[in-house]
Amino acid sequence: MSQKNIVLIILMLTTTLLLSGCWDVTEPQRMYYVQGVGVDYKDNEYIAYIQIMNFANVAKTEQSNPQASPTEVGKATGKTIEEAIYKLYRSMDQEVFWGHMTFLLFSEKAMESEHAIPIIDTFLRFRETRYHIWVYCTQDPIEEVLLVSPILEKSPTATKLSNPKNTAKQESFVEPVNLRELVIGLNEPNHEMKVPMVSINKDWETAEDSRTETTFAGVGILSKNGFKGFIKGNTARGIEWMNDATQQGEITIKLDNNEDHDYLTVDIKKLDVRVKPIVRNNQVKFEVVIKFNTILNGFKGEITPRQVRKKVEEEVKKEIMATFEEGLNINADVFRLSEYLYRDNVKVWKRLEKDGKIPLTKESISKINIHINKVSPGRKTFEETITE
User: What residues does each domain of the chain span?
Assistant: First the structure.
């Protein structure tokens, strides 16, 4: 081998040795991973809550480590949300990684008077966070919501706040919203967005004691100018029936006026929602057409598909109007009717709009047509399973 070739080999080996080290990379076990962030506002200061997850309970979602705390929550205040987060950095032992952040939780105060806008802007601009961060609001203490652990002590990544679509196939009460969708909705007519509202639920128990879980309790209406209010509980049920994304819901009806008669719960699936603006004499009204299938999972007595159709149609219309009118009470276009007109006839929208949306009254929804494509009795016919 020539001396020239020997020199080349030595140079190649030296270069390889120099490139093999990654001295500027932090080892995964030496980092803290943010799961979620909560934000409150009090005494002219932002209060930031950071939820750090324990990866001892993440590697195995089926068999978690009961001795390890699934999450910990830190808290700090600041004149801006960034200042509060930097104060939290001072109390941490390791570098913080934001790439696994899955949700952002607002208090009612944090959404008032445009306080939410700089918060949203911060997490959109920061290079480590993603656009697909779920957004929620609550009236409960944020720290308590963040400390709720999943049922059966599963991984913290399995919580309802981190994966809101896990149960959507069974109950689509409120549609989840991420940061990207929130910004798009606030920038387009009607410049309002429905933010899912979560609360603490105490319906679960173990052999030792009762436990808490989070539940979807309604929506908060956020606008570009601040917070308008909440639509909660049964009053919010109309949102489910005005949404194509609803995979399954339930509605409970009574087939006659006999107070002793049993109630009947019907599953609703495969919604198809159409809204048509009708413009006459500088006034606009909206006609709504909704199609879906229904399934009866259990009932007593003899009933007919015609009876079910009639009562389900009446109840769905009633719930839609109740939600719409509750929205009007807080000056909110809860079904985004302004956007339907904007997409259909932008010239009329420009003529009628005020502050980005059109004026609405109880008569703005002139007609609701419900078409039930199919009434299924489940596995059996419309006869009773157990006869007396």
Answer: 25-236, 237-388
Cite the DSSP H helix spans in the chain.
3-19, 81-90, 108-111, 116-125, 142-146, 179-187, 238-241, 305-329, 337-344, 346-352
- What does DSSP assign to residue 380? S
- What phi and psi values does residue 178 have, to the nearest 5 degrees? -105, 175
Per-residue burial over 50-67, b if 16 or more Cβ lie within 10 Å, else e, is bbbbbbebbeeeeebeee
3-state secondary structure at position 227: strand
Please name which of 168, 182, 309, 312 lies closest in space to residue 246, comparing C-alpha atoms: 168
Q: What is the pLDDT of residues 34-60, one digit of tens each?
A: 999 999 999 999 999 999 987 655 554
Sign, CA dihedral 51-56-59-65, equals: negative
Residue 242 CB contacts under 8 Å (≥ 6 apart), including other chains: 273, 288, 290, 320, 323, 335
pLDDT, tens digit (0-9, with 9 covering 90-100), for 68-89: 567 789 999 999 999 999 999 9
Strands 192-205 and 210-223 come out as antiparallel
Q: What CATH topology corresponds to 237-388? A: GMP Synthetase; Chain A, domain 3 (3.30.300)
Angle between helices 116-125 and 81-90 (to 10 degrees): 60
Q: Compute the C-alpha angle 322/109/246, nearest 5°.
A: 40
Distance CA 160, CA 146 (A): 11
